[in-house]
Design brief:
By secondary structure, the protein is an all-alpha fold. It is built from 18 helices and no strands. The protein folds into 2 domains: about 200 residues, MFS general substrate transporter like domains (Growth Hormone, Chain: A), CATH 1.20.1250; about 190 residues, Growth Hormone, Chain: A, CATH 1.20.1250. Helix 2 crosses helix 12.
């Protein structure tokens, strides 16, 4: 039976919607757990019998593990198929969730929470999901789909923040983490769904795949390292990692230190999730209307303003909720402009490699943000110093972003 053009269009739209929902579910669940370590950190400290600084260091190592595993899992996905990366990731995340509550030493916690759990998350990262579904979606629809999936990062906070907090408070850390294995397990059959290949054999898609296969990684990296634009992107994303890790891992403790309950903190982070979605979708839209570097500079520039108000204004529950919402609005909104600049300067076939490297630098920033945040709170019982450092770094990131030359071939190297 021959399908009409209208039927083909309907089938294509249905496939795009299905892949978008599936990819968003997978990313929301896995990023939701990773973004809520701050909700769990005090329970982990009490359960393991370790200091706050020690657990913060474990989470900092987890930031590095998450960044390191992504390019490795990308290679596995390219050579063996994405399904292997998904299966391995789900197994590791489930193991990490089950074993972490059993850890009573720094060594065992480092293995489970610092390596196994974040390694599993790295196998099911944003890049792996987008790389899996991109051959099945036309280039015209891919930018919209990737923006929606990136925005689903916030769904994890909207749904999981209050759920995780309730489970841990009412039933304990072990029960709470065990319950999280259920949605993780559900993500596996959905992963199988999106790895089914039904490629759109268009000339554009074929050319992209050909360009990817012809890339000389060594030459590409040499060109990138010499580029002032790429150096600025790296500095900015290091700052972003420092800032974001500080928020997701330590902001809940900061809010509770002001005397608010864990329930208030969890619901504040639900608002954080909502504004994360809004900020990410708006960022993608602004990149199509304004200079991408200006969009990036704007979002980085919003952070020091938010931090300044956070430090000087009264710590009422309303203000804390507003601050958390603003942190979410400028959070992952830097992802679309960074990817867009890499695309303009180095070409679409280079995005996977160069964005992966930038994201690893992002995780190095996250390592220092989590670790120094824990040390700062342990010594001073306050995060004022580390927030001040984040303010300065965000100002630098904003300034150099506005100085980026985003047009290929016009940059002075």
């Amino acid at each position: 039976m021959v399908c009409t053009n209208k039927e083909k269009q309907i089938n294509t739209i249905f496939r795009i919607i299905l892949l978008t929902i599936a990819g968003s579910f997978i990313y929301a669940i896995h990023s939701g757990i990773r973004n809520n370590y701050g909700i769990m950190i005090n329970s982990i400290v009490n359960n393991a019998g370790l200091s706050f600084a020690s657990v913060s260091f474990v989470l900092a190592i987890g930031q590095l593990t998450f960044g390191l595993v992504q390019p490795i899992s990308g290679i596995i996905a390219n050579k063996k198929g994405s399904i292997y990366s998904f299966i391995f990731g789900v197994i590791l995340v489930i193991l990490g969730l089950i074993l972490t509550p059993l850890c009573k030493s720094i060594f065992s916690l480092m293995i489970c929470l610092g390596i196994i759990l974040p390694a599993g998350s790295g196998c099911i990262s944003y890049g792996i999901i987008i790389g899996t579904i991109s051959p099945n979606i036309s280039s015209r629809a891919l930018s919209t789909v990737s923006g929606i999936i990136n925005a689903s990062n916030g769904i994890g906070n909207i749904v999981l923040s209050p759920v995780i907090n309730y489970l841990i408070i009412s039933r304990g850390l072990r029960y709470g983490m065990l319950a999280l294995t259920i949605p993780i397990a559900l993500s596996l059959p959905i992963s199988i769904l999106i790895t089914k290949k039904k490629k759109i054999e268009t000339q554009n898609v074929n050319q992209i795949h050909k360009k990817i296969s012809e890339i000389n990684i060594k030459e590409l990296l040499k060109k990138a390292i010499k580029s002032r634009t790429y150096k600025f992107l790296i500095i900015g994303f290091f700052t972003s990692g420092f800032h974001m890790a500080l928020i997701t891992n330590h902001l809940p403790t900061q809010i509770q230190a002001f005397g608010y309950s864990s329930y208030s903190t969890a619901y504040a982070f639900s608002i954080y999730g909502i504004t994360t979605i809004i900020g990410s979708i708006l960022s993608g839209s602004l990149c199509s209307k304004f200079k991408i570097k200006d969009v990036l500079g704007f979002y980085y520039g919003l952070r020091p303003i938010t931090i300044l108000f956070f430090l000087i204004l009264p710590k009422t529950l309303l203000n804390m909720t507003i601050f958390t919402a603003l942190f979410g609005f400028s959070g992952i909104a830097t992802v679309p402009p960074v990817a867009g600049i890499i695309n303009k300067v180095f070409g679409s076939a280079s995005i996977g490699t160069l964005f992966g490297l930038v994201f690893f630098i992002h995780q190095i920033g996250g390592f220092f943000g989590v670790w120094f945040g824990g040390i700062c709170f342990t010594i001073t019982k306050s995060y004022t110093i580390i927030w001040s450092v984040s303010l300065v770094l965000s100002l630098i990131a904003s300034g150099i972003s506005f100085a980026i030359i985003e047009d290929a071939g016009t940059e002075n190297k």
